[in-house]
Amino acid sequence: MEGNKLTSVDLKHIEIQDSFWGKYINLVDEVILPFQWELINDRVEGAEKSYCIRNFRIAAGKETGEHKGMVFQDTDAAKWLEAVAYSLNKNRNSRLEEAADQTIDLIAEAQCEDGYLNTYYTITGNQRWSNLFEGHELYTAGHMIEAAVAYYQATGKRKFLDVVCKLADYICQVFGPEEGKIHGYPGHPEVELALVKLYRITGNNNYLCLADYFVRTRGERPCYFLNEDCIKNGNYIFPEFKDFDLDYNQSHMPLSEQMTAEGHGVRAVYLYSAMADLAYEYQDEDLLRQCETLWDNIVNKRMYITGSIGSASYGERFTGDYDLPNDTNYSESCATVGLAMFSNRMFHLTRDGKYMDIVEKALYNTLLSGIAMDGKHFFYVNPLEMVPETVKKNPTYRHVKTTRQLWFGVACCPPNIARTLASLGNYIYAVDEHTIYVNLFIQSSIDCQLSGRNVNVRQESNYPESGKVTLFVKPQEEGSEFTLAIRIPTYCKEAVLRINGKEESPQPEKGYVHIRRLWKKEEEVVIELKVPFRYVRSNPRVRHNIGRISLMKGPVVYCLEEADNGDYLSTAVIDTRIEPKEEFDHQLLKGTLCARIKGARIDYGKTGSSLYEAERPVYKEAEFKAVPYSSWNNRGEGEMIVWMREKD
Amino acid sequence: MEGNKLTSVDLKHIEIQDSFWGKYINLVDEVILPFQWELINDRVEGAEKSYCIRNFRIAAGKETGEHKGMVFQDTDAAKWLEAVAYSLNKNRNSRLEEAADQTIDLIAEAQCEDGYLNTYYTITGNQRWSNLFEGHELYTAGHMIEAAVAYYQATGKRKFLDVVCKLADYICQVFGPEEGKIHGYPGHPEVELALVKLYRITGNNNYLCLADYFVRTRGERPCYFLNEDCIKNGNYIFPEFKDFDLDYNQSHMPLSEQMTAEGHGVRAVYLYSAMADLAYEYQDEDLLRQCETLWDNIVNKRMYITGSIGSASYGERFTGDYDLPNDTNYSESCATVGLAMFSNRMFHLTRDGKYMDIVEKALYNTLLSGIAMDGKHFFYVNPLEMVPETVKKNPTYRHVKTTRQLWFGVACCPPNIARTLASLGNYIYAVDEHTIYVNLFIQSSIDCQLSGRNVNVRQESNYPESGKVTLFVKPQEEGSEFTLAIRIPTYCKEAVLRINGKEESPQPEKGYVHIRRLWKKEEEVVIELKVPFRYVRSNPRVRHNIGRISLMKGPVVYCLEEADNGDYLSTAVIDTRIEPKEEFDHQLLKGTLCARIKGARIDYGKTGSSLYEAERPVYKEAEFKAVPYSSWNNRGEGEMIVWMREKD
Questions:
Q1: Start and end of every Non-reducing end beta-L-arabinofuranosidase-like GH127 middle domain (chains A, B) (predicted)?
Q2: Domains, chain B
Q3: Residue B265: in which H helix or E strand, if any?
Q4: Cβ contact (<8 Å) for B540 and A610?
Q5: DSSP string, A269-317
Q6: pLDDT tens for each residue of B124-137
Q7: Mutation test of the interface with chain B: which of A299, A311, A396, choosing the one with the most B Cβ atoms within 10 A?
Q8: Strands B523-529 vs B533-536: parallel, antiparallel or unpaired
Q9: N or C: which end of chain A has fewer CB within 10 A?
Q10: What is the complex's ipTM, to 2 decimals?
């Protein structure tokens, strides 16, 4: 790995004004954060109650009552605060900031004298750390830490940071290799990556060491969970957990031996994200290689084309290589967020564009399919094929919802989506001392320091509708030498580069064109990526997709919806020898680029009422309209299909 | 309905000597019953313990200990005894009869003074009838009654019959519409049809009335289960039951309003069987029509081509119309037994051959796929498509086994299969005063009374390998007038009839050719059914089967197995324009009629290690060998597929 890893630029210095992403990003400030504030305060009629703020009030002694909601209910507030922080970076919305400050005050009051912070255990009086497998105390702490770091970075206010430092200091006293400490680790990884963040902002090496301890102890034999925890005691919080194997939470073998992505999807990618962080901090090449192996296994064998993971609902987990059912899958929104986090970290360490391909895929497809265009409804589970009638009547699909829901009892996904949208800038650009990487083609502007000088880069883009991206590079001082690295996605087979109007032949390395030069006062770099609609086929080992194709443009996966094409979408057959036709539908969902594709409908003619007497079918010519998968289900309940039959 | 319904002939008078069925029927006496006797006595190494006989010994005070196994563990013994009884009809195997008598003595000792008989409640001391939803007391009683009736019919010994009459008398005191009695009904239907059997053999009308009460009270509002039972108390035996709706056990609405088959498959068809019985006993045309409606719904919208039912594992239940996934389904062996029972009863009432089509489909396919050809291994769940690697790694399939298992903790299927095989004669023939119906083409001989005279009919058949069936009709006295009715299956589009060598044109009515005449001393009737291999397509509303075909010969469904065709069976494409070629494989599983079919393999060429970069596939010519679905998985673990892709 490179000794100097890439970093993100402070979100304060990035402004996004993109036609595609604008539909969603503006929702964060305008709808999602205010709405989620109401939700965690239980003020939204028709939504499941969160009890989150109420739990803090009880723990703080300002109200009486029992803890309600999940054991990790506190994280609703933490993820909301983290998203608020990212949002405040660009706009110090005083109403939001006041609400956040007030919440932070409450959290501080709910913190115990010794630093412990968790309303479930505080209110119930259950023994702290007695059930690491399920109790989510460290997971919750991790989200608190992430939120506090973000809030400090956005506002400069230390109060929340002080709270989580006190919490982290306490956790450092409780856990670790030393005698007398608990030799366990979290049932749900999350605190590991949070502790690295806290270390990076505070410089306190204890936090880094503890993260490292948690990661390296995981899965060691004898297994902590079997010997000391709920599995031994048989006192389960979640009854279904007693049927889960240790691979559910990646503790089935020492991490250093884990070469395939196993178990619960979110747990896995949060853990791998921390591993990537530690690989850098300790300059540990072995750990980096292991991250690469795990990432390869996910991306080349266990990931949906939409950038989602988790082929099974039971355990919300990875299953086996090439096992990617399109309708019974889990594909949790949060797992996609985690995959983007992990991939972004791997990019920062390796500067290899293949990681950014996956970040882009995850963000453009499953992240957005998780949220409705009204900003108030969310999918947990993101199937690639849906027949609502079946989903409602067949309990094999009981984890699937046929429309996005207002809120969930387990409310991880909505705030996770919100914080990712609010921090999108972290994915668009990355920098080191002398280079700025343009990763995503999202219209925006960034101010950063390159070779010690202030530089502004403005990106004009209407991607992926158009593949033309213009970068206006403005160093504060003429003649600054630095590198502009522009990503050429793997799916883009042809690109034209023009610097100040002069065509150059791009020579991408690891997915990036590097333009190193002395930059004048303002220069214009244009990259024209050829991103036509294209048909994509699966590796034939994915049996569910044999004989099927999907349609993509750039990173965007398309699908057929009942609203455009009627029902029985399984009878649609696409003739991939005919080019898809682009069609911009101004009426559709604030303006959407659609595709008209040709093929046939399988027609069995009159089949009567019998089940097994159909005649040989005929193929009746038909045209279909495809829309981005991310925008599906914004027009009511209906069928949807990503992997369509291909005409022989 | 006809006032005089058809009946079965005493199994003593039917002898079966069929090449296809012989492989299985002979297993009953030689392997299954002795083996199951060892199993219920916990003497088989490597098998899950049954505890069944042990529980009876404890309840009888001959041993001390706790009840082990399921609440309905007693039914292991009951179903074993019932199968033994059918077996003793044709062969008074003294070792089996002694074991049976000994078991019956034990059961009698385990019965309480007041007639109550159930080792679970007796041993645990839990309150009788406190949990009808889950407790299975009436279900268990039903199996005891069925066994006792069969044993009495086979041996003439009254002891077991007396035990169950005492039990039934006691149940009649406890349940019923009168004040002071429990106004509930079984969580698992079964006792209803058993009580009708007991009524028919004893003439005690109380039993019929109680069966009728149970059926007609079911689903009435307010619902008994919500108001008086475990749902109200919240004390569940099976934790998952708390998530089940009332339709799980058909108590979601009054039975008279139920027009679609809902809920747990076995419960449903046992209940409908009792409804058919009651329709006859009370000559209730409305009830008969409702049975027809429910049967139509199953057969035309919710049944697999293999005669199995239950599209979802969760709840082992029906889902919606045309929802027939081939790999995540439940398709329990017991549900198929129940469907055959229900269909046979409907045939007895209506004399319509369409019911016998389904009996035949159920018996030739799923009944037999439930049992290995060694007679010792069983499938509970019968998928129509299996990829073992996926099944093992993806918990969506955790209900599926990749090979048949020695025995199950819930051991309903093995003895249910055994009793059905042992009573196969009940399905082959049916009679009324003047007619004998030849329903199934299984080589056998029957002695019966027709028009008051003894008649022997001998059937020579090698069906469905050959469609030629010869019936030798021998009345005891020349010149007896009666009708020989021979079934022409719906799938048979052409048949030739010859009476004593003279060709006649068959005029089937409701699926039967009726030959009414004065029969001489011995006459020969030949029916030649044309039953070539044929390709079958699903109604296109079955989305999982669109673009797919299956292969059948007569009632027998064929499949591709990995043992013959290699793996990746999803890439097999069948050219249905080419006729399948018959091939009798003498080496295969005691001799098996196979089919050679032609088509192609989808070949994506070199696809590299990536998931989504495959080229347009080519279709490489290929030949496949298909074997009967019933015989699959007798050569080790491997892929299997029933619904194959059809070449355009």
A1: 435-530
A2: 11-428 (1.50.10.10), 433-529 (2.60.40.1180), 534-646 (no CATH)
A3: helix B265-281
A4: no
A5: HHHHHHHHHHHHHTT-HHHHHHHHHHHHHHHHHSB-TTS-B-SBTTTTB
A6: 999 999 999 999 99
A7: A396
A8: unpaired
A9: C
A10: 0.93
